[in-house]
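Changelog entry

Holo records now carry the ligand SMILES as an explicit input line rather than a separate metadata file. Below, a converted record for adenosine-5'-diphosphate, shown in the new format.
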Amino acid sequence: MRYILRKVLFYGVALWAAVTLNFVLPRMMPGNPAEILLARFKGRVNPAAIHAFLIAFGLNVHQTLFQQYLSYLGQLVRGNMGISITYYPEPVSQVLAQALPWTLLLIGAATIISFFLGTLAGIVSAWHRGGWFDSFAPGVFTLTSSFPYFWFALLALYFFAYRAGWFPLGEAYSGTRASFAISNWPDLMYHTALPAFTIVFTSIGGWLLSMRNNMITTMGQDYILMARAKGLPRRRVMYQYAARNAILPNMTGFALSLGFIVSGALLTEIVFSYPGLGYTLLQAVQNEDYPLMQGTLLLIAVAVLFANFVVDLLYVRLDPRVRNE
Amino acid sequence: MSQEELLKVEGLSVTYYGPPDVEAVHHASFDIKRGEIFGLAGESGCGKTTLIAALTRLLPDNGAVTAGSIAFAGADWLHMTPPEVDAWRWQKISLVSQSAMNSLNPVISVGDQIVDAILAHRPNTPKREAWERAEALLRMVEVDPKHVHSFAHELSGGMRQRVMIAMALALEPDLVVMDEPTTALDVVVQAQIIHQVRSLQERLGFSVIFVTHDMSLLLSIADRMAIMYAGEIVELGSRERLNRHAAHPYTRGLIDSFPSVFEKKSRVGIPGAPPSMVTPPPGCRFHLRCPERLSVCDVAVPEERVLDSGGHRVRCHLYSVDALRQGSHD
Ligand SMILES: Nc1ncnc2c1ncn2[C@@H]1O[C@H](COP(=O)(O)OP(=O)(O)O)[C@@H](O)[C@H]1O
Ligand SMILES: [Mg+2]
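Structure line, unchanged by the conversion:
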């Protein structure tokens, strides 16, 4: 319990730091974001609207920095992150809310699949060290992991979607309206499969290799020898004694990659015109859409923290040693 | 000794394949009777753990028995198939390994690990009964039974060692092999555990092979013992014989060189270091460090001599017929 309390406190502070940084950074950049906004909107929107917008986003130039900070926090608590310039007049929160599910679906699924398959392959590879699987899998997947992603994704798109026509050329769904209704899932899967495959294919090697190494180290431990000596079924030794311990060092890496799900595999979303957060971030940067950029970056920071928190909680279940710390 | 023989090792040699190849055990022969504590002593690196690994059929992949036989409970132990060995091990022969400190899986509870052993061999045991048995086993080694739910890191070194002993006794084996079970512990705990082993052994009647490099410890608990040097058994005899008539200069050196758990002696020590096991010295393997070395020791491998009717035997030129006739060891 002490451990969990400490974690909650830690992540609370980290969250506050992320939120504050998100406020401070744009104000430290050369040029006032407010001026940039004003310049962009001049003549297109009436001054009163601009003024209201600036206040809404806490960019009121007549306030002290501290007052701005307070109203920024106040707005944030109410879920207000300003208005997107790119998608004007849509609020940033709404743009993000539309993009987030797609990223979670594609990158989330791909990351988790890659972690599980890679870990499993690492376990099997190490357990049957020198066997047929071990003699090709680590090599092959190290190779695929060293492919430049952009190049590989383009090739996959070209051959499997454009030439063979097995997959759509991009987008996340058919038609003009997105729907997460059950009946629409086959269509979603159809659109997700190829980009997800490119991610899994190029990231699985890392999980495989690190799990294999951890397993080999763990299998040299005395408790493995004892488990074998006791005559336990192989599977039990492999999973409950070896893999259970070998996976622990990988949990941190898994937490990080879960956090980065939200930042979206930027390249994936660009190559496959996939309407997720990575794609949104690109739009924001190209259009100097500061509110959207800030909102996206904040969401990424929060997601990284949240994923780490969840994995920390999971870790307590996996490793009894941290419970008594 | 007229007791029934439980284990008989004859001419056992074990090689680790390299490079370089190391013959870690060379022509070892001895037997273990039912209900006795058999000691195995020797400096670190002399092949004790290797011999134990061969006896428990737990040699690492690069190690193999190259000669000899092991008869265990009437069976040809070295020729049993791996599934047969898996079935017998722990039922009939169990192990408390050298690094018992690290022999517990850190992420599952002590009870789970004891229950694992029980269920692996007696799959029809109801779960509850297996857990009760685990608690009873802990009680037997004087660990609070509530520790079935503890994890390794929550136990002291001495407690972990007791847990390992409880685990080894889970299926009431005929033979428990203990490889330096107390080396990592402080002296007081060490004495308690030795005492524990002794009294359990008297109560339950299993045989023990007790491996240590502490000669005086062995002289206080073993019924019979073998002394190993550079992969060979150089002397074997009862405690009484070795206590009073240790024959091999190496044995005598060992007895003088180790401070005891029970009494503080000053270390005399054997000069020099153990020889390379890759290329053991010609002649008697101990001749380079022997205070009573004869000229024959440099070139001729000593035959084993039986010194009394109780099976006290030694591998040393001092006791060979020629040497006795020449009287040259005086
Ligand atoms: N797995 C192994 N591979 C190669 N050589 C080994 C291996 N294990 C032990 N040895 C060597 O075998 C010899 C005997 O080692 P060991 O049986 O552990 O001795 P002890 O238990 O008496 O200290 C040593 O020279 C050691 O270096
Ligand atoms: Mg050893």
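Spot-checked after migration. Chain A touches chain B at residues 221-223, 225-233, 236, 240-241, 244-245, 248, 318-321, 324 (CB under 8 Å). Chain A has a mean pLDDT of 84.
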